[in-house]
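Meet today's protein:

…
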Amino acid sequence: MLYEQLIINAAVLGAVFTLFALGLSLTWGALDVLNLAHGATFVTSAWVATSVYSAYELPLASAMLVGILTGGMIGVVADLVAFKPIRLLITNKRQAELSMVAATIGMGFVLDRIIGRATLDQVFSFPARAFPYKDFHIFGARISNIEIIILVLTFLCAVLLNLWISRSRQGMAIRAIAYSAKIPPLLGIHVDRMSAATMAIGGMLAGLSGTLMTVWVSGMAVSTGHSFLLKGFAIVVLGGVGSIRGCVLAAFILAFAETGIVAFGAGNLRDLAAFSLIVLILLFRPQGLFGTRSAMRA
């Protein structure tokens, strides 16, 4: 296999990893919520998108929008049903965080079982007619139109999210919440509203990545969400919790490591070698590539 083709394959995989991990990093960095239902949101959104497409023959772009909105709604429901009551009832911050993690585990299990029963735990996908694939050749390597779309959308999402967090009033509010949950209300910041918005954006990123992944690899299964959740967790830790730049870099490091290992015939060692690389980096920089040692992360 040409090295150029390996680079393209790794870049596209890194882009999908990035979209998935950005949502996880955003909620963890801003709200101190390690959302372990993120993988289930990823799969559920993709399943809803494929189901809507099959039922109503919508254009693929519209079906993808359905997947994105599904992810956002799951995030908002999680915040309203679980996280907001926990914030109100449990005043101890550490206990509240643990309770939220437990809530996301339960929510993820429920979503997994719903999709598992609906699909009989089989792979689901868009119909072959949904997206006409077209290949392009660059320096002897092949790249498809869906891969170009994935790369462009990932770049746009990462840039827009970074600008929103760093320069908008809402982004400043989220960074204030990440620094302290007590100070923002004194500044007129509606914590519950911003929390729901953050969860919605995180869910929308999961929905977008899940839908694109389903188109790219021609299928999705419930177990895919579990695999991506583990990798997303590793990416966020490696890049630095709440760091968008770190998340992007870590996602591509993991993708290139996995692709290279598979290409050289050691596919069964893919996860072992990739996560060993992450452990090695964290030994020298425990806070992650772009993380800080202070409490302010977003």
About this structure: Residues 60-89 form the longest helix (30 residues). Residues 10 and 216 are 13 Å apart (CA to CA). The two ends are 40 Å apart (CA to CA).
